[in-house]
Amino acid sequence: MNSILSVHTVRFVALALAQVLLLSHINFLGYVNPYLYILFVAFYPVKNNRMLFIFLSFLLGLSIDMFMDSGGMHAAATLTIAYIRPAALKFSFGTVYDHQSIKFDAMDIGQRMVYFSILTIIHHFILFSLDIFNFSKIILVLKNTLFSSIFTIILCVLISVIFSRANKK
Amino acid sequence: MQQIVNFIIRNKTFLLFLLLFSVSLLFTIQSHSYHKSKFVNSANFLSGGVYSASNNISDYFDLKEQNKILQEENNRLKSILFNNEGEVDSVYVDSSTFNGRYKFTSAQVIKNSYTQNNNLLTINKGAKDSIKQDLGVITSKGILGIIEDTNNNYATVLSVLNTTSRISAQLKKTNHFGSLTWNGLSEKYVQLTEIPEIAPVTKGDTIITSGRSDIFPKGIPIGIVKDFKLDSAENYYEIEVSLFNDMTNIEYVHIIENEDAGIIKTLIDKANE
């Protein structure tokens, strides 16, 4: 239990620092950035105290906001994907989820990609809607969501393959 | 009563979600209005510390470029100085210009942002160095923004690349003035609106600060006219201004304090009463 706790603390801090110091300054094509820190939400153990999980996600989003001077938009977006995660899990992994015994490493890459895509697209859509905060610029919101999502999903899948324990047989 | 408690216990996750979501929405809405981002900003101890530590390392990579910019500015200032030597030599001292209405402080940018809709920068000077809200910030090339929030050691700067920013600006050749805003599209261009239709605007004109607010002195360069058109009512020009500053590469800045700002403000307040 202790090691699980420390793994997640390290992951929290490492992802937040990587995001604010490195990934938010990529600015590919001028504005496309990956938001990799949502991996924390994606990889949080399935068997969990849901209240704590939601609160931690909020905290992660808020710390990103604090660094990026963005008010509360990362907090809102991260909080939402943390709340709807059970639905995303059920949709992408199907029956396995009902037994509460998901091992992300053991999952098929296609299913994993669907799972990341759901979380990423919802997160980015909320994030950019709150950032631009203007209904008349909905096209800009969708454009930003699309490009940043592609970037984030690719990075998420890569990271999850690289750090996967399944291939260490 | 029993039922209310039961309801809360049953839906506690959803209620927590709603609570936290409204808190974050509140922060977001605050950050979209001028001078309201009080609680969550990067001028605090933690984020300011992390940014200045990382900047300590990364500013070495940029030294050559920054040296060149400094050299250019030195060059420009020297040429002004030596070309005016004859005039300055006399005993004439204009107290209104030499007695220092404006106080300059230099600072270093530790966090820059230009891709969001509301961009803020963080600098490594704060309340300790008598930096206050609403002071102007410029670079050697031109205007940068206005101080938004301060902490003891750090301050955030509301960049001109911010959709809530409004700065008074004018044409260099005439005194027609308008306000400078940003539409959030490109970090190279800002928009100057409310220039009356009668003003003789042409492409390539220089835009400077107007000095009509007590934040910036008159004559700080902003950019040149890239394109212009009349607005829908055909009374005012909408001018696309290409900035002198490369907003993606900013390291050293100057903060301007107008020491008469307080007097001007009391005067205006009195007139408004």
* H and E order of chain A: HHHHHHH
Sheet with most strands of chain B? 6 strands, antiparallel, barrel
Q: How far do the termini of chain A sit from each other?
A: 24 Å
Query: What proportion of the residues of chain A form beta strands (DSSP E)?
Result: under 5%
Number of domains of chain B: 1
Account of the 3D structure:
The complex is a heterodimer of chains A (169) and B (273). Chain A has 169 residues and is mostly helical. Chain A has one domain. Chain A is 70% helix and 0% strand. Chain A has 7 helices and no strands. Chain A has helices spanning 2-21, 39-43, 50-68, 73-93, 95-98, 109-132, 138-162. In chain A, α6 packs antiparallel against α7. Chain A is globular. The mean pLDDT of chain A is 84. Chain B has 273 residues and is of the alpha+beta class. Chain B has one domain (38-273): Thrombin, subunit H. Helices cover 31% and strands 30% of the residues of chain B. Chain B is built from 7 helices and 12 strands. Chain B has helices spanning 2-10, 12-31, 45-58, 63-83, 85-88, 95-98, 261-272, and strands at residues 102-111, 118-123, 136-138, 143-150, 155-162, 167-171, 177-181, 189-196, 206-209, 221-230, 236-243, 252-258. In chain B, the strands form 2 sheets. Chain B has a 6-stranded antiparallel β-barrel with strand order 1-2-5-4-3-12. Chain B has a 6-stranded antiparallel barrel with strand order 6-7-8-11-10-9. The longest helix of chain B has 21 residues, at 63-83. In chain B, 32% of the residues are buried. The mean pLDDT of chain B is 83. The A-B interface holds A 17, 20-21, 24, 27, 30-31, 33, 50-51, 54-55, 58, 61-62, 65-73, 75-76, 79-80, 83, 130-133 and B 12-14, 16-17, 20-21, 23-32, 37, 40-42, 44, 46-47, 50-51, 54, 111, 113-118, 120, 122, 156, 184, 186-187, 248.
